[in-house]
Specification:
2 strands, about 10% strand, elongated
Length: about 70
Amino acid sequence: GKVVMKIPKGVSSGQRLKLGGKGIKSKSGSRGDQFVELLIKIPKQPDEAYEEAARKVKEGAFNPRESLY
């Protein structure tokens, strides 16, 4: 299912984050942990839309996940 995950400030591509209790269900019914590996990709030639999104993030007005809820 869907989860909300807080990405800590300053993380790098390749780092792993843990979602406690969100992994595969065991035979006893308890759930393990799920690990998420981050892949951060930044375009080499940013277009105008990317530049605008970066400005909004800097100003605190941009929510890239608003369409998910």
